[in-house]
Amino acid sequence: MYYPSGLSALVLALLYTLIHSLPVLPITNALPNLLITNTTSSNAASFECFSSSWSGSRRADTNDCLKATMALSRNVDRSTFHRGGPVDPFRLPTSQCYGTCCVSIDSDADDESTWTSISLVATQVTSACSRGYFPIGNTGGYTVDGNFGHIRVTVGKANAVGLVVP
Question: What is the tally of helices (H) and strands (E) in the chain?
Fold first, then answer.
């Protein structure tokens, strides 16, 4: 094994001291403001989690739910999500499924949000309602998003989110 001596040991000691004396800055302060082009906020304040009973559980595999959430649209444009009307990326209801899990997005009235925000709250529901060792285990529940809380985001088995399973 090599042990530094003399000048090299002094340089290593100075570098070690210098590195450990620097203040730790949050990553957002380290990035130039020009890189931040769109911010996403979520109005989700609470999550309603499905019961974890074994019989007739509406909970799905947590990993499947994370993958279903990742498959949602990544459109960052803020727009009005609507029920019915023209066929566009903001028309509801819609869902995305992967394995045992489906993420369903529906609304009882027009509301404004972004797909990025909806993906964020779907991920938050998946995490907040997870039982077992995250991300292994099962999860399921719902919350709302949008300026007025009209967009309902549900995560769980297909029958739990209102989809018909063949």
Answer: 4, 10
User: In angstroms, rounded to a whole number, what is the distance separating the alpha carbons of residues 79 and 4?
Assistant: 62
- Using DSSP bridges, classify how beta strands 48-49 and 141-145 pair: parallel, antiparallel or unpaired: antiparallel
Give the span between the Cα atoms of 160 and 151, in whole angstroms. 17
What's the rounded Cα separation, in Å, for the pair 45 and 40?
A: 15
Q: What sign has the CA pseudo-torsion 108, 151, 161, 72?
A: positive
In this structure, are strands 111-113 and 79-83 parallel, antiparallel, or unpaired?
antiparallel
The alpha carbon of residue 15 and the mean position of all alpha carbons in its chain are separated, in whole angstroms, by 39
103: nearest Cα among 118, 116, 91: 118
Nearest in space to 117 (alpha carbons), one of 157, 158, 147, 142: 147
Tell me 31's DSSP state: S
The two beta strands, 79-83 and 91-92, are: parallel
| Contact call for residues 156 and 69 (beta carbons, < 8 A) | no
Question: pTM here?
Answer: 0.68
99-140 pLDDT, tens per residue?
999 999 999 999 999 999 999 999 999 988 888 766 678 889
Handedness of CA 121, 155, 86, 108 (dihedral sign): negative
